[in-house]
TrEMBL record:
Subcellular location, record wording: Periplasm
Domain PDZ: from-to ranges: 300-352, 413-484
UniProt key word Hydrolase: yes
Family: Belongs to the peptidase S1C family.
EC class: hydrolase
Name of the featured protein: Probable periplasmic serine endoprotease DegP-like
Catalytic activity: Acts on substrates that are at least partially unfolded. The cleavage site P1 residue is normally between a pair of hydrophobic residues, such as Val-|-Val
Amino acid sequence: MSNQSFTTHRNRILALAGVALLAVSLAVGTTLMVGDAGAAGIPQASQALPSYADIVAADKPAVVTITTKMKVQDTSADGQQQFEQQFGPNSPYDDFFRQFFGEENPFGHLPQQRRPTQTAMALGSGFIVSSDGMIVTNNHVIDGATDIRVTLDDGQQYKGTLVGHDAKNDLAVVKIDAGKPLPTLSWGDSDKLRAGDAVLAIGNPFGIGTTVTSGIVSARGRDLHNGPYDDFIQVDAAINHGNSGGPLVDADGKVVGINTAIYSPNGGNVGVGFAIPSDQAEAVVAKLETGAKIEHGYIGVEIQSVTKDVADAIGLSSESGALVAQVVDGSPAAKAGLKSGDVVTALGGKPIATPKDLSRLVADMAPGDKADITVWRHGKSLDLSIAAGKGSEEKQASVDNGNGAQPGSAMQSDSALGIGFAGLTPTMRDRFGIDPSVEGVIVTRVANDKPAADSGIQRGDIIVSINQQPVTSASDAMKVLKTAEKAGRKSVLLQVERGDTEMFVGVPFGNA
């Protein structure tokens, strides 16, 4: 399964709530403004505000600061270097982008210069779950660490040893030997949390010292598109860099979450924080404490959502399931008989409503586990059997170098969809650097006010199949489109190859 980055830039930033570089936090000069609590115009409370002092007094001694040393490298490179690394110098894709997109290489905006590897210190939080020194934190707090130091609430510092970690769940367990019993925190029941419940976040933001912030549960089940286990608790308690790995506790002082990420336009707290639910974390931590290696299942497919247009195109009655965009050659999915264009509707008897459902169920499988998998193919439901592989298996599809039939060269267009295409002639393949093994038709024109453009089809895309029927010439493509239109289909399903990415796009006839 493919994962996406945890950091998102769209006028806002999704930032990991830990791993604050100490050099950064120490270099920032902060002025603290002290106001007059008794200033005029501020009404006096008619009754005392509720106090969390007893909870803090009980829990704070079990919260720790984790400092790590790690090797860091600025991996940014000159845009042209990165372009050449991917496609080679003087790549035919240079002409491709210029002709079809009217621009130079698309990586030109990237920052320049590669810096040498350096050593940096990073900061996070954690909490003690057993008196012999087992500590829970986020995986991203210790990821890549060459040295781990744990500082207790009383200031005592100890060397930490990594017992186990699970990147998919973003959880890790670190052990210290303090030579004495240590205070601990107990797990709570995150399933009982409701929006509006009071919570406290405890940790060491920016290295200023153990800090407590209060708030409420803002929402449950948030998906940040970081991995198959995204099911975050959203809170408005202040969470900042350095809080990662610290506990989120309820009104009973029990751990109901692990503070992990923030959503912010500037990287600082704006009242939108996220925590891993304790009911998800507790079982994983129990395994990590024993030193057991956490292995997640892998089947080797790229999947996408089933939109209304896709459902209409393939005859599905609802917009549910996971559409298989690509099957990795030699993967468990390929061995089980899954094909590009299948819609997975159930795995192990459990229904699949979204791609996320499939990702989670597969990740929950251990390598070697077998399960029945139900797919929708060519208008019928089909049951197959699949055995999960290891999540670390190579996921790149191999290229079939067989010689296919030579596609026709004629250009044709469909006015209803607003799309023009042409066959892949040897000259065109040479000109645009298209591998001989790639079969399909190339999109030469997309009308701005037509359905193809609205659905995201772009000039230069390769259409591999239409309604799950392979097309190798422009005349083939036109035939399939006209047949679908005459049959009263509301939309068509295009299998599109764009660079190294394959996807399915449903394009409606109704908007023509």
